[in-house]
Structure formats: C-alpha cells, structure tokens
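Troubleshooting: if your tokenizer reports a length mismatch, compare your output against this known-good record of 119 residues.
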Amino acid sequence: MQDRRKYIRFNIEGSVILKSEDGKCTIRADLVDINLTGIAVYAEEKLNADTNVSLELTSKLWEESTVGKGRVKYVQERKRNNNVIFRIGIEFIDIEKKAIQYIINRIQEDICAKARKAR
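Known-good structure output:
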C-alpha cells in the first residue's frame, strides 16, 4: 500500500491533554508521533472521528507546552498488555507552526547526533 502522507512523521515522547470542543471530555494521552500537520497519540479513552479538540502538548524537547486546536481524523483500537487502548490521529487546525517546526528540528538534531555517535 502506498503511503499518501505529505510529511514525514517523527517519533516523539511526551504527553498531550485533549479537551473536546463541548467541554464534556478531557483525555490525557501519550504522544506517538508528530509532523507539520498533526500528531498521533495513544489514549485509554476513545474520541470520535471529526471531533474538534483543544490540545496541550508537552515534551522534554522544549520547555513550554504548545497549545492549539485540532480535529480527530481517525481512531484505531489496539491491545497493549491485555488492555484496550486507542491510537488517535489529530490534524492541527490552529497551532503555532513555528513551535511545531522547532520541535521537529529538535527531533532531527537528536537523530543526527545519535547517527554521528554511532559511526
């Protein structure tokens, strides 16, 4: 199957707080990957596709949380350690692109540094 993505996804460690637009649901999730257009997370709770959310990203790669808005594009049920979790893909709707680019640049710098050490 051909990959239709426009941007490379980068693995990232961190967390995200997702709040549904109606305010009825708040979910804490683990970041899985990131690119310029969105993120993927693992969560113990499910959100429905096409749900608009506010989000707050936190990682060791940068000092401040990054906040914005997104839309749930897909939800996939997975098993982890005999528990059901959900992989949720979120497309950014409104987020500071400079902050996302900074995060991606830091990830790429770390990848290059590890490659140099491995030589």
